[in-house]
Amino acid sequence: MSCNIDAVTILTLDAWMDARDILRLIEEHKGKLPDDCFLRKRKKKAMDSVLGGTGDGRIALVSFAWTDEGSGHSYDEVLIEKIAPKIHGRVEVVLHWETGELSGLRIVDGKVTLHKIALSLGEEETPTPKLSF
């Protein structure tokens, strides 16, 4: 994609990556990662795990940021082809492109599927009574 991603709405984020994969991917793609990138947010934790030998090397993903400058250009080549296959667990997000378009991305144990987004109204709400003083 040539336009960037403005926002990512997380529907499900129950995933982790190996600390060594995080560090290797950051190094290999440092010039291609977007300004706001979930890998960078876990770099310190990954370094602590590798250098300090703490934990089992599994780094929980607490964000799925892939926005701002460079996010569109690196989406297919870096996120989908290189990073997503290294993600364990489940990620479901809605990507908000700067064009206003929405797209869905699901990653389950490294397998990527792309989805159309369907918006619908939910159950009817009962109006809240107005307070009078």
| Molecular shape | globular
Largest sheet, order of strands side by side? 3-1-5-6-7
**Share of β-strand residues:** 25-35%
Mean pLDDT across all amino acids: 93
Query: What's the story with the biggest beta sheet?
Result: 5 strands, antiparallel
Which class best fits the helix and strand makeup? alpha+beta
- Range of helix content: 10-25%
Q: Helical element count?
A: 4
Number of domains: 1
Protein model, in words:
- The protein is built from four helices and seven strands; from the N terminus they run E-H-E-H-H-E-E-H-E-E-E.
- By secondary structure, it is of the alpha+beta class.
- It has one domain.
- Helix 1 (about 20-30) crosses helix 3 (about 45-50).
- The chain is globular.
Short structural description:
Helices cover 25% and strands 32% of the residues. The chain is α+β, with helices and mostly antiparallel strands.
Topology:
Blueprint: E1 5-18, H1 19-28, E2 36-37, H2 38-41, H3 43-52, E3 58-60, E4 66-67, H4 75-83, E5 88-97, E6 102-108, E7 111-115
Helix pairs in contact: 1-3
Sum up the structure in keywords.
133 residues, alpha+beta, 5-stranded antiparallel beta sheet, two-stranded antiparallel sheet, 4 helices, 32% strand
